[in-house]
């Protein structure tokens, strides 16, 4: 019998040729023309050509730059706002309605506004990424800190602990798992935010290529962009999961 970790690797490997077979079978049975759905090998050849001879790498770098900068700033803002809101009911009542209004608004409707404010460059896409990243981090931190047993804080008060000591020894360890879970969600949302911004208005990026491929009826360019975006999203999620596992090793060991 395969272990749980082995199944995580083996099952996707088994599924890949099955998906390719079903893909080819679907094209053969329904006589799908290449301009609607190309053969898998033709798509892979086209994607390799985009990567080697085209400027696909440059567009990937643009999207990654937007995501990484936006995620870094968004996490920082989310952590700061989350801690402030968790510690102050007054501030929560003051800012949360505005935060909820912004977050419930469809991001695709906010993208044109950000492009008008910040232009077609990286700044507008980074702003959208910051917007979508900061919210889940903030909410997870607020929930985690407020779920800490009051008796723990009472003990720290008896021990005459400072605010910094309470943060380092109580609030940070207790909320770390929730914060890391929020960051994992935020990473997937960051890709969506960057692509939405690029599709609405951009000079480069994978979202820009999606729009370009759609306008030129280039199915290979559209599918190549989608596959690369999915792979990047998967890699970011796996990296976040790996970091989470390493940082929470004390929890798994029962410490």
From TrEMBL:
The chain crosses the membrane at residues 9-29, 67-86, 98-120, 126-148, 178-201, 221-243. It comes from the Bacteria. Its main location: membrane. Residues 60-240 form the ABC transmembrane type-1 domain. Keywords: Cell membrane, Membrane, Transmembrane, Transmembrane helix, Transport. It is found in: Cell membrane. It is a multi-pass membrane protein. Belongs to the binding-protein-dependent transport system permease family. This is ABC transporter permease. It comes from Clostridium malenominatum.
């Amino acid at each position: 019998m395969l272990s749980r970790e082995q199944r995580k690797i083996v099952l996707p490997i088994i599924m890949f040729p099955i998906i390719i077979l079903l893909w080819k079978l679907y094209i053969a049975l329904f006589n799908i023309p290449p301009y609607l759905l190309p053969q898998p090998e033709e798509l892979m050849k086209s994607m390799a050509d985009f990567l080697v001879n085209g400027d696909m790498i440059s567009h990937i770098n643009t999207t990654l730059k937007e995501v990484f900068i936006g995620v870094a700033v968004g996490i920082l803002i989310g952590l700061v706002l989350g801690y402030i809101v968790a510690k102050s009911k007054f501030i929560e009542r003051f800012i949360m309605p505005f935060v909820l209004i912004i977050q419930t608004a469809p991001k695709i409707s906010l993208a044109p506004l950000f492009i008008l404010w910040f232009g077609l460059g990286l700044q507008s896409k980074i702003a959208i990424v910051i917007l979508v990243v900061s919210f889940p981090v903030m909410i997870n931190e607020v929930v985690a800190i407020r779920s800490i047993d009051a008796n723990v804080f009472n003990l720290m008060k008896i021990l005459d602990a400072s605010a910094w000591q309470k943060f380092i020894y109580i609030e940070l360890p207790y909320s770390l798992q929730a914060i890391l879970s929020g960051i994992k969600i935020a990473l997937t949302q960051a890709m969506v935010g960057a692509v939405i911004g690029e599709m609405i208005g951009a000079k480069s990026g994978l979202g820009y290529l999606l729009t370009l491929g759609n306008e030129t009826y280039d199915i290979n360019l559209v599918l190549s962009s989608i596959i690369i975006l999915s792979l990047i999203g998967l890699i970011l999620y796996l990296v976040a999961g790996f970091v989470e596992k390493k940082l929470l090793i004390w929890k798994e060991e029962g410490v």
